[in-house]
Amino acid sequence: MTNPPTEPNVSAIRDAARPPVADRAAFQAELDRLRVREKAHTREGDAIAAARRRLPMVEVDPQTPLTGAHGPVPLIDIFDGRSQLIAYFHMWHTGRPAAEQCEGCTFSTAHINELSYLNSRDVSYAVFSEGPYEESSRYRDFMGYTAPWYSVPPDSVDRLIADRHFGILVSYLRDGDKVYETYWNTSRGNELMSPSYGLLDLTVYGRQEFWEDSPEGWPQRWGSRGGQFRLDGRPTAQWSRLQAGRDDDLGAMPDGWTACSCSLHTVPPAGATN
Fold it and tell me: pTM for the complete prediction?
């Protein structure tokens, strides 16, 4: 079994600068001033969500085929009888080992487990993976993902991606036998999938990423091009699965597919170690 890496940044954090110490009253006074801005931020988020609910929508072919455990499945069936569907389009590097799979998609998808609250609002959720189902579903099993998992066959990519890229989060509405796309986002727009980031934002040292506006002496080690989601050459969440004895062998590349040749595989993966 591969030995797990030691936790990074321990000495950097424990030796880092600290905020000034204040009594309870002074602390609360500063927090009360910040709370005004936090509430304004919340209200602006509410207003943006209201505008989002008023967007127009675009029709999508409801019979667009995806691939599931039992073969082809039309898009409309993935609603599972509900009126709405949220789909995360997971990047996939065909023919590459688990350690070289998308660290950002692994980070986001690893947080999605409990779907009953979405279902109670008549919303289904699914992962639409790039690449072959046979390979990516073994990754799903290795990671222990519980969300419904499908792959997007090559002939369906243009119909669903529509000049965008994998890594998008998309909302759909079903109206009878028709399907419409109502919203999509990507990059930092996907952060709402990952409560780890929201929780880190509540801590004194934040995400510890270079771009953050932090005081002098605060630990900042992680970049924002994938390295923040990797540890010792792998997506961070893989280490606990390996330690639990799970097999990360994705098997042979399925017939008819060619190995991924994106930039990740012409330069060392972000955050990789020798």
Answer: 0.91
